[in-house]
């Protein structure tokens, strides 16, 4: 399990995160939400060393992250960033990059790697795109290609930064179904999202951030009852119970 204890992090001398403590338990989907600039993406990046850690601890199964090699970190945590390059390679080749942490030098893919990639492409609903070059794809199709790469990595913890951006409604639900399926496999999943209504319906826990701090962490019911969403976002969160479970919507009402 990956755990953060009083983590402070940022860029250069600018501190973005101010003492964040949170764990990502196996078998659960944790959604991370908050206003723009509150530090959601920086939190994921700091865990993996892509943002400067300025204090506190990041622990991988109780071990400080500083004790792990880059290869060991990549075998334990997969990351789907918000901003993604678009190299002139096929979707299958992109997905194969997820197997890099398991290859010895020189890099030669094994039959097992190709089988894992095919399964990842299928799970990401991207198998029909396998032989197409990334630059020819729509934003949503590229999103599915990157999801396949993350799945092929086979890490115990999966971090996704805005994975439903650019996707149509069907594929947004597909991504969340995949996240739930990964949690069902015993993996920890953390998703940065702006879609609070979807997160409240599909995540096990919701972390609300504000100004680089963790404002609220709890189940969807606990977050709803706390009023944290109303206070942080300046809207009224409403819930309607339906035969398909609770549904959430927002009302623009002045406080």
From the structure above, extract its key features.
four-stranded antiparallel beta sheet, Rossmann fold, 9 helices, single chain, 255 residues, alpha/beta, six-stranded mixed beta sheet
Write the layout of secondary structure elements.
Blueprint: E1 2-11, E2 14-24, E3 29-33, H1 40-47, E4 52-60, E5 63-64, H2 70-76, E6 77-80, H3 91-96, H4 111-123, H5 139-153, E7 157-161, H6 169-184, E8 188-192, H7 196-202, E9 205-210, E10 213-218, H8 220-226, H9 228-233, E11 236-242, E12 245-251
Parallel strand pairs: 3-8, 3-9, 6-7, 7-8
Antiparallel strand pairs: 1-2, 1-4, 4-5, 9-10, 11-12
Helix pairs in contact: 4-5
Domain ABC transporter: 2-236
GO molecular function: ATP binding; ATP hydrolysis activity
Protein name: ABC transporter ATP-binding protein
Overall description:
It is a single chain. This protein has 255 residues and is an alpha/beta fold. It has a single domain, classed as 3-Layer(aba) Sandwich (Rossmann fold), CATH 3.40.50. It contains nine helices and twelve strands. This is ABC transporter ATP-binding protein. Keywords: ATP-binding, Nucleotide-binding, Translocase, Transport.
